[in-house]
Amino acid sequence: MAMTDDMQDVFFTKEELQAIVARLGAQISRDFEGKNLLMISVLKGSVVFMADLMREITIPCRIDFLSAASYHSKTEAVPEPEVRDILMYDDISMFDILIVEDILDTGRTLQKLSSYLLRKGAKSVTICTLLDKPARRDPAVTITPTYVGTTVANEFVVGYGLDFDERYRNLPFIGILKPEIYN
C-alpha cells in the first residue's frame, strides 16, 4: 500500500510549498540583512522545511539544531515539552536566532525553546513556522511567530517533514491523513 493511499486529501502541493518557502526566504533575507543569522531547526519535523528555506535565503547564515520531546503518544502533546540541547555553538550571544518549525500547534514547545535560547544569551529570537494551527493553541502561550507560511485548520496533516508515528515525513506534499489511520 502506498503512503498516498493513507491521505484523505492533498492540503498543499509540492509547487504550493515551494512558493510559500520562496516568499518566506525573501522576507527573511530582507529582515535579517546585516544581522548574524543563526537558523535553528527543531528536530525532526522542520528539517525538510529548513533545508528548502535556507536555499531561498540570500544573506549569510549559519544553521544548527535543537530537539524537543513534545508528544507522549502519537497524537497527544505533553503539557511541558522537554528541550534537548544539541547545539553546536556554546556561546550564542552573537546571534540573531530564527527558530524554524514545521507546525505551530499548542505553542508550548516554541514558547519553551524561545525562552531557553534567550536565557542562553541569544541576541534575539524570532520564529518562522511553515504552518500555524491556531485552533489548537494553548491559552497560556504568549508567543507569536513573525513568519508564517500559512494558517491551517485543525486537520491532522503529514508530509514535507510532518509525521505520524515517524512515517510520511518524506512525502513531497502536505496531506490530510485519513482519521482511521491515527484513531
Brief sketch in words of this structure:
This protein is of the alpha/beta class.
Describe the structure.
It contains 4 helices and 9 strands, in the order βαβαβββαββββα. It has 183 residues and is an alpha/beta fold. The chain has a single domain, classed as 3-Layer(aba) Sandwich (Rossmann fold), CATH 3.40.50. Strands 4-3-2-5-6-7 form a 6-stranded mixed sheet, with helices on both faces. α1 packs across α2.
List the helices and strands and how they pair.
Blueprint: E1 7-12, H1 14-31, E2 37-43, H2 47-56, E3 61-71, E4 77-85, E5 96-104, H3 108-119, E6 124-132, E7 147-151, E8 157-158, E9 174-177, H4 179-182
Parallel strand pairs: 2-3, 2-5, 5-6, 6-7
Antiparallel strand pairs: 1-9, 3-4, 8-9
Helix pairs in contact: 1-2
For the CA atoms, what is the radius of gyration? 16 Å
* Major β-sheet profile: 6 strands, mixed
Q: Within the CATH hierarchy, at the fold level, what is the topology?
A: Rossmann fold
Rough shape?
Answer: globular
How many β strands by DSSP? 9
Q: Identify the CATH class.
A: Alpha Beta
Low-confidence stretches: none
First-residue to last-residue Cα separation: 19 Å
> DSSP helix count?
4
- Coarse structural class: alpha/beta
